[in-house]
Structure formats: C-alpha cells, structure tokens
Write a structure and sequence with these properties.
Elements: H1 3-15, H2 20-36, H3 55-71, E1 78-83, E2 88-92, H4 96-104, H5 115-118, H6 124-129, E3 133-136, E4 148-156, E5 163-172, H7 180-199, H8 201-216, E6 221-225, E7 228-232, H9 241-252, E8 258-264, E9 267-276, E10 280-288, H10 310-323, E11 329-333, H11 339-344, E12 358-361, H12 365-368, H13 370-381, E13 387-390, H14 397-408, E14 415-420, H15 424-434, E15 437-440, H16 451-461, E16 468-470, H17 472-480, H18 486-499, E17 504-506, H19 513-516, H20 523-538, H21 543-550, H22 554-563
Parallel strand pairs: 11-14, 11-15, 12-13, 13-14, 16-17
Antiparallel strand pairs: 1-2, 1-5, 3-4, 4-5, 6-7, 6-10, 8-9, 9-10
Helix pairs in contact: 3-7, 7-20, 13-14, 16-18, 20-21, 21-22
C-alpha cells in the first residue's frame, strides 16, 4: 500500500468513531481499496458516450430536476442525475460557482462514478449501500474529490423496489453542509412520488403513448401533468423554456385531442395534441404551420418599459444613440434582467412574435444545426427589417464566427443581440469579434428604485389587474433582497402571489422566507430554508412530522421556522 493510502487509512480510523454513516463510509473506502488499489491510481473519472446513457431517466425526471435547480439558484449547489450504473445522465446548475465546481472534478454528462471505478463518492456509494449518503472532503477515496461535498439518495422503482437512479447534490467544501442531507431526502421523496404518479392508470397510458411516439418519430414531444411538464423526449429537451410555457398554457385550456396550430418562438407550429384522462396531456411538435390560434383570456399587457433610476435612464439614452449607428449592438446583462424587452423597446413575454421586428433565438442553432439556422438568419437579416438575436451566449466558437459572417455580409444596421453573462467584460470581448457596440443592463439590485414601477407593470402583465398593491413593509423587504433572478424572479414572485389567491395589499407574510431574510443569507441558510419548506409541504404543515422528515428535533424546526419567518 502506498504512503498516501496508508496515511488516508490512518485518517479514517482516527476520525470514524461509532456513527453508522462513518462506519458505512469506512467499509466503502476498504471496498474501494480492494477494487482500485491506492487512491493515487485514480487520475480522473472515465466517461462513456451519450448513446450509452439511459435517456429515459432524463425524459421522466428532467423537468423536475430543472425545477429543483431553479429553487437552489444562487446557492452554489449543483444537481446530478445518475443511472443505476453510476453514469451521469445530466447535471443542473444555476450559477458559475456550481458549474466551475463540477468542471474542476470532471463531473460532466457521461462521467462514470461507480464505486468500483472512482472509489467512495456521493453517487457510487449510494448505489452500493442503497440508501442516502453524504461524502465530504477526505471521506472521498479519489484525491481529486477532496474539495467536494456530495450528498446523494437513491430513487427506487415504486413497485419493484430496484434502484432506477441516483440524485446527488454536489458543491465545494463548505462548513455546515449537514442540511444537504434532509434537502436531498426531500427531493428524492418528491421524485419517488413523481414515479408513483406515473404508475397510475392515466400516467401509464400517457407514458406508453409517449414511448410509442418517441420510437416512431424524431419530433419533439412533451408530456404535461397537474404539476406541469413531467416528461420530454430527447428532442423535447431542446424546446426553449418560453415555448414550454406556451404549450403548458395551451394544454390548460383543455382542448379535445387533435391537430392544432400555436405560435412559438420559432413561428407558427402544428401540434399533435392528446388529452389523456382529466389531467394528462401529450403534445408533439409536428413542424411549421401557416395559421395560428389565439389563446383565450390573455391579460392585457403593458406595452411600455418602465424605470426612473439614473442607471436605467442613462442606459436607455445610450442605447437610443447606438441604435442610429452603423454597427450592431450587444445588450449584455445577468439572467432575467429584461434584455429582450430592452432590445424590442417594449415588454417581451414568452411566446411573443413581434410584428415590428424579427426575433431570432440563437439557442435554436443547437436544435436546427448551425448551417440551417445561420442560413435562415442570413435570409432574415438581409430583408432589412429590424432584427433582435436573442441569447448569443448559446453559440459556440464556430457559431459566433458564422454570426460574424452574417453581420459583416449585410447592409442591415438595425440589429441588436442579447448576451446573458455575469461579467460586463464578456460583452467587450464580443465587440471585437462581431464589430459591435455593447451596453450593460444593470441587475435589479442596482436599480432598486425602479421596483415599484416594475411591480405595477408585472402585476398587470400577469393578469393581476390593479388588485395587488405592494405594501410599504413588503417593499422595504424586497428593496434589500439580492434578486439573483432579477426581473424574471420578480415576475415569478408576483405569479405565485396571484395564484395563491391574494388580493389587496401585499404584506411581509405574503413573501417567501428567503426574501424576508434579505441579502444576508449564507449558502447553508438558503439550503436550510428550502429543506424546511419542502418538509413542511410534505407534512401538510405538521411541524412534528416535518422534524421527522428532516431528521432533527422539533425544537430545532420550531426555532428555524421562527428565525426564517416561515410560518
């Protein structure tokens, strides 16, 4: 045994006492040594090609995992879904810190993390033990995982009891990560319940039809249940989220099964629509169409942008000057800041197809292929109509070079591109490549003076009319909140309040606990809040039962609920 392995064995024996978790990890470490020899023998996790991965797991769990990732944005946490062989099917993260953490340890799609391949870790050891496990820092067998905390739980088939998948929360080494355990347990329970719903008659019927249609055609397919999108085909994974929202709203209108035409971001699209039982809907995108349906009862949406902060007014003035130059413009900003709305000069809503401008989604290059997308882009740009190219961060180096050729080969100078980034300098780099000017759209936290006006506009846009007034105490709380999701997060908050049936003056009690805590939340505090909220939801508000779900004392739950103003 190498000196490194001996030293690590002494460390394990010294630190692991009588705790069952520690004992299980020690046995895992011994199994790893028997299978792999010294930890120094493991340089990096091996990878398998995409065709070897169980895409069915992604179809079933993908939308749920995306929602989980949205709930932990800004925390530095990353989510992994692995199959029963320990192969990473997909990873989810909402910030650069989480992405950098995964890249550092080589945890990408196709990475093999079985225990007999990379030793003790938060995926393979979960499979080996068949129960939730947290592996922190030096508890990992491979040296390159020493800076990571991995907390995983198995997902069991509701009838056979076999392990179908592993859900793992991964982050860089941080103190106080114990609350990741109840969080991953809560998430895994929700995934188990998701499977149970799929096993019900209507769900099984939809799943069988979904699988049949997936085999027969390469068209994008999305299945909706009472809780939203619950499964997507591999092609359906590429549908932009705004289009998913349009399809969800269409399915909620409960039309009869048949062929329909709706307007998506790419244009008029024909749908093959199936209504299954009372709550399940299956939608297949058949391709471009020539006529559109008009969704009923859409709210009357404001057509003007709002803002009075000096930062906003200076930006609008700068952009108006640049619109009249011979160079294209890049509007850069963080996720959800309203870049498309600023480019269009009026509020942009999911599924909109503006008449006065052409709107191109750069992300569709990944669906259509670079050659076809850029052929369409060149044709549209050369028509001379004002063009907005949304989301150029989705283009790879080859795509950006192709875009440069499109821009340099047209006389159309009324072209605006949007770039989602956390670094203003990223736009500067693209200025040179694309021969463009750029402006920086400040995040909501830097233009908080505009919050009351944005609130009024977004209440109207979400169908709330004038019946939802932001009270002074709630405004004070929202004014010190950090807004990691920016205006899009504000819109989501308003929709949640409206859907809860609230009207009149919004008070602090109507706001989520994470917002009530303002800017001072640490990683662990955010995780604690999410874990407690999920446990309370599972327990239907019963705090004693929630404490059992979390694995902590009732006194701790009561204290945390009071601290975070959760109830």
């Amino acid at each position: 045994m190498s000196e490194t392995a001996k030293a690590k064995e002494r460390l394990f024996y010294a630190n692991f006492q009588t705790d069952a978790q520690e004992s299980a990890l020690l046995h895992s470490w011994k199994r790893s040594h028997e299978a792999l020899g010294s930890p120094e023998n493991i340089a990096m996790a091996p990878h398998v090609p995409a065709e070897m991965l169980d895409e069915h797991l992604l179809e079933v769990f993908g939308p749920l995992m995306s929602r989980f990732a949205d709930n932990v944005q800004g925390t530095g946490l990353a989510l992994l879904l692995a199959d029963a062989r320990g192969q990473i099917v997909q990873r989810w993260f909402e910030d650069r810190r989480a992405e950098a953490h995964l890249d550092t340890v080589g945890t990408v799609r196709g990475a093999v993390l079985a225990e007999n391949v990379v030793g003790t870790n938060g995926v393979g050891t979960v499979l080996a033990l068949g129960r939730p496990v947290q592996v922190s820092g030096p508890q990992h067998y491979a040296e390159f995982y020493q800076g990571a905390v991995c907390t995983g739980a198995p997902i069991m088939h509701p009838t056979s009891g076999n392990i179908l998948a592993v859900l793992t929360i991964s982050c860089d080494l941080t103190p106080g990560a114990d609350y990741l355990k109840p969080l991953v347990r809560s998430m895994s329970r929700e995934m188990q319940e998701h499977l149970v719903r799929i096993e019900r008659p209507d769900s099984r019927q939809m799943l069988n039809l979904f699988l049949t249609m997936s085999k027969q055609t390469g068209s994008p397919i999305v299945g909706f249940g009472a809780e939203g999108a619950i499964m997507r085909s591999s092609e359906g994974q590429q549908i932009p989220e705004p289009d998913i929202e349009v399809l969800r709203q269409f399915s909620q209108e409960e039309p009869d099964s048949g062929s329909y035409i709706v307007e998506l971001s790419s244009g008029l699209t024909e749908l093959d629509y199936h209504a299954i039982g009372n709550q399940h809907r299956l939608v297949r995108l058949m391709g471009p169409a020539v006529r559109a349906t008009t969704p009923a009862n859409r709210p009357i949406r404001p057509r003007n942008l709002v803002g009075r902060s000096p930062e906003w007014l200076a930006l609008v003035s700068q952009l108006n000057k640049l619109r009249n130059t011979e160079f294209p413009v890049i509007i850069a900003g963080e996720y959800g800041t309203g870049k498309a709305s600023l480019a269009l000069d009026h509020p942009y809503h999911f599924g909109d197809k503006p008449a006065e401008m052409e709107l191109l989604e750069a992300g569709e290059a990944n669906v259509l292929g670079n050659r076809e997308w850029f052929s369409q882009a060149r044709e549209i740009v050369n028509q001379g109509k004002p063009v907005v190219i949304r989301g150029i961060e989705a283009l790879d180096d080859a795509g950006l070079n192709s875009l440069r050729l499109v821009l340099s080969g047209t006389t159309n100078r009324n072209i605006i591109m949007t770039l989602t980034t956390e670094e203003p300098s990223d736009a500067g780099k693209l200025e040179l490549l694309l021969e463009a000017n750029s402006v920086w759209l400040p995040p909501l936290r830097d233009r908080i003076v505009d919050l009351p006006d944005l609130w009024t506009n977004l209440v109207a846009a979400n169908g709330g009319g004038s019946q939802l007034e932001l009270g002074s105490q709630a405004l004070n709380i929202l004014s010190i909140y950090d807004w990691p999701g920016n205006i899009r997060e504000l819109s989501r908050l308003i929709r949640q309040i409206i859907n809860a049936g609230k009207s009149g003056v919004v008070t602090p009690a109507d706001l989520p606990g994470t917002m009530q805590m303002g800017k001072n939340l640490s990683l662990i505090e955010r995780v604690e809040i999410e874990a407690i909220k999920k446990a309370l939801a599972e327990a239907n508000g019963n705090r004693s039962k929630a404490s059992e779900i979390l694995g902590v004392s009732r006194a701790t739950v009561y204290r945390k609920i009071k601290t975070y103003a959760l109830g």
